[in-house]
Amino acid sequence: MFFYAIVLFVLVSLGIFTWFYLFNIYETRVTVHPKYLTADLDSKIEINVIPLNSFGSRALLRNISAKFEIISGDSLVKISESTSDKITLQSLGQLGKVEILVTPEIGLFPSKIEIEIIGKK
């Protein structure tokens, strides 16, 4: 009987550890790839919101949604794809700067992303 109590305690402890440290979302990371757009109609940029666990890696089996708002420069880009955790912007061929406010559903503060549209390389 004592053996079963020890096994149950270990399994419950392992389950709690797994939930709180691997599955639970502690913060979010906003990634931008590539870092800038070019003044070309084919130039695209992708902004992702990634949920992070306590170890700083992607939280297992968890998704997060975010609100993406173009603060300035909305005449310089168009939204080519949008999901709950990702947005893809396409350049309209003009130089300038675009500012986007990313507000994740879980998080204390929104993130302000500045994207520069540079000349063709």
Structure report:
The chain has 121 residues and is α+β, with helices and mostly antiparallel strands. Helices cover 18% and strands 45% of the residues. The chain has one helix at residues 2-23; strands at residues 27-33, 37-38, 44-52, 66-72, 77-82, 86-91, 96-104, 111-118. The strands form two sheets. The chain has a four-stranded antiparallel β-sheet, with no helix packed on it.
Q: Choose one word for the global shape.
A: rod-shaped
Q: Look at the structure and give the mean pLDDT.
A: 92
Radius of gyration: 20 Å
Strand content: 35-45%
- The residue fraction in helices comes out at 10-25%
Structural class: alpha+beta
Sheet of most strands: 4 strands, antiparallel
Q: What is the H-and-E element order?
A: HEEEEEEEE
**What is the quaternary state of this protein?**
single chain
Q: Termini separation (Å)?
A: 73 Å
Q: Figure out the total of helices.
A: 1
Number of strands: 8
Give the key terms.
alpha+beta; 45% strand; 18% helix
Q: Topology, please?
A:
Blueprint: H1 2-23, E1 27-33, E2 37-38, E3 44-52, E4 66-72, E5 77-82, E6 86-91, E7 96-104, E8 111-118
Parallel strand pairs: 2-8
Antiparallel strand pairs: 1-3, 3-6, 4-7, 5-6, 7-8
Q: How would you summarize what this structure contains?
A:
The protein contains 1 helix and 8 strands, in the order αββββββββ.
